[in-house]
Design goal:
homotrimer, 147 residues, alpha+beta, 3 helices, 8 strands
């Protein structure tokens, strides 16, 4: 058994606003690490997109989520001062603050311990497509005899 | 001194909407792990309940918190499409996204480093009682000479 | 190479409501730990201030963020019961719940892996100045040959 840290970075191309599932990519990083017991931290390196763990079965749940954030932080808010990059600039920062930049998921027997209906999603808050950097950091122990 | 990972899973029966303190259960998991220095990650395996660290003294603070979320994400929102499980279905997902699925608390000298007024709470967003799975993952070092 | 846990506590004096950058203090704690690869968890020990990772370039982005929270959780909300410490008492708890108490940032090559525009901020929600306790917990490995 060895204690180790394993990082893996990947890019997610987005097509404008919405949620994209990245659970598979996080699981791949975990498999590559050979870690059996530990924790997986997912981190997005941006201030205009974020992370959510969300219902992964019915797409209408995510459509309603998107619409809720459009209404909670509207693009046409008249008093926003920070709008250099357009009407979706300031809403993207606030929607990011209201969701998550990092999320930590337990790892047991080499598997992410997500519940049946949980998926990890990148939440893009900008209208334009972007390439988003995600970092997965795994900390834990490998199987006995492995390194 | 040994570096180790210790997981502990437990179930919390809820009685419908509201917050239930789980600090004691997290502390028990920490004690069982024998970890003295490290971090404790608390994770809920659901998309219709969540975690909050909240004021643990005056119950009116939590009552106001519950009411705030009832009003911020109302059950009678007319444009929600995702309502297969009733009017509390979609609000429960959004309230979960606006709070937390994982929380990481420092561990020093074998104790959770919560502030005086901080308690860890499971936040049930469904009307009906549920059995909720919580996972506590401890990563760190035991005392010198212990294993 | 050694696996280790390093904690560092510091106090941040606030001057009432607003966001204060603490990225430099977190980086100092990381440097003192000598950890090269791992994760850094930042934790605030309070229920009336919180953490956000926010845009660190244009101060108007943070001004708009402050104003958004003033409007989302107004001080003059008539139905709040928890007001023993004044009109900013209950809003401070709700604004804390809507943001973060802990945040975990990857560490590679001895550096926090924040994106270009990301800064770590303490978000004070009370009107009066306070001294706020922040705890940084570093878990990971040092360079080969170091301890």
């Amino acid at each position: 058994m060895a204690f180790l840290v394993h990082h893996e970075a990947f890019e997610i191309p987005t097509r404008g606003k919405g949620t994209l599932e990245i659970t598979g990519r996080v699981s791949q990083a975990l498999a590559a690490s050979k870690i059996e017991e530990g924790i997986a931290t997912v981190f997005v390196r941006h201030t205009s997109c974020s992370l959510v763990i969300m219902e992964n079965a019915d797409p209408t749940a995510r459509a309603d989520l998107h619409e809720f954030f459009e209404r909670l932080v509207p693009e046409d808010t008249p008093w926003f001062e920070h709008d250099a990059e357009g009407p979706d600039d300031m809403p993207s920062h606030i929607r990011m603050v209201l969701t998550r930049t990092s999320e930590t998921v337990p790892v047991r027997n080499g598997a992410l311990q997500l519940g049946t209906w949980q998926g990890i999603y990148l939440f893009e808050h900008r209208r334009a497509p972007h390439r988003r950097e995600v970092l997965v950091s795994l900390v834990g122990t490998t199987r006995h005899g492995e390194r």
